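Customer escalation, tier 2.

The customer says the design service returned an amino acid string that "doesn't look like it belongs to this structure." They asked us to rerun it and document both sides in this ticket. The original structure tokens are below, unchanged.
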């Protein structure tokens, strides 16, 4: 069932299918551009005049670095006169949030780097990022969509372990908790950086759920399911709220952010969060972008941006 977005984002335009937005897709941790290949095809079919920019990035690097590289790519290589939509899955949503604050105010981003990055443990990024954006024209972002993104603060180490378990690999074999990206997900430094900004970008966050919407005790049911499914793969996994097996719904919802954020608290953005279901079945972390209900909500949102 499609949630009514009109009350937050206004009426849909008459014929968005004839428009020519640039839709930037960025995958999540452990992913690649191939992860979003089916979604790319769906967008191209639904919006035949759109250009879809779906590229891999090195997810081991700091989210802040990947977000800055995405912003630089948009400013350097993508048409500045076309509508721009950013869509990120999981960590990719955080990458898009970083890019969005830079595109919204590149001068402020540059001005904060010299004193803020050392405080937050990003001092190694200063030579890479300093003075890249202050002389560039700000770029309007028409809409931002985050899918199963840990927007509220820290990924628990157990949650990262849970994703590795779902992928049938161990953390030690696939990713290190010393990787800058994993530090960003298990520490507050990225979110303390983002709270320095204010944006006005319309934003839709979508979370999945590992339990039926008819479950009165969804948190308990999910804990039991996670225990049965992941026991032996992911010691320390502890998901106590409705979740998609990896990220809790409360973490995706920016209104529940542990730290103030640039979108809801400090920003002026139109914002909605919703939990997605499809025929009362699970919408999990690694299938959320392939679900028809999720895609329909995304297209409904884009038609209003």
């Amino acid at each position: 069932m499609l949630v009514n977005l009109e009350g937050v984002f206004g009426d849909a335009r008459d014929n968005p299918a004839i428009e020519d937005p640039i839709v930037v897709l960025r995958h999540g941790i452990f992913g690649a551009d191939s992860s979003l290949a089916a979604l790319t095809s769906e967008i191209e079919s639904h919006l035949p005049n759109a250009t879809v920019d779906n590229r891999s990035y090195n997810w081991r690097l700091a989210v802040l670095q990947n977000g800055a590289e995405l912003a630089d790519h948009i400013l350097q290589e993508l048409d500045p006169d076309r509508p721009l939509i950013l869509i990120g899955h999981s960590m990719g949503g955080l990458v898009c949030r970083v890019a969005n604050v830079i595109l919204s105010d590149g001068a402020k981003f540059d001005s904060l780097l010299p004193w803020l990055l050392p405080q937050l443990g990003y001092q190694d990024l200063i030579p890479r990022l300093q003075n890249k954006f202050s002389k560039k024209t700000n770029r309007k972002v028409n809409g931002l969509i985050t899918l199963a993104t840990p927007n509220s603060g820290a990924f628990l180490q157990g949650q990262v372990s849970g994703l590795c378990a779902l992928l049938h690999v161990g953390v030690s074999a696939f990713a290190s908790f010393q990787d800058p990206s994993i530090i960003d997900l298990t520490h507050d430094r990225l979110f303390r950086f983002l709270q320095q900004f204010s944006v006005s970008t319309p934003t839709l966050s979508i979370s999945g759920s590992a339990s039926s919407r008819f479950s009165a005790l969804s948190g308990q049911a999910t804990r039991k399911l996670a225990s049965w499914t992941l026991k032996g793969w992911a010691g320390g996994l502890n998901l106590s709220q409705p979740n998609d097996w990896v990220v809790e719904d409360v973490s995706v919802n920016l209104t529940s952010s542990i730290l103030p954020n640039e979108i809801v608290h400090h920003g002026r953005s139109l914002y909605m969060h919703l939990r997605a279901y499809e025929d009362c079945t699970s919408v999990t972390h690694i299938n959320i972008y392939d679900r028809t209900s999720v895609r329909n909500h995304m297209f409904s949102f884009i038609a209003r941006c």
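Tier 2 assessment: The sequence is consistent with the input. The beta strands are 22-26, 51-54, 84-89, 143-147, 203-207, 271-275. The first strand starts at residue 22 and ends at 26. Sent an explanation to the customer and offered a walkthrough call.
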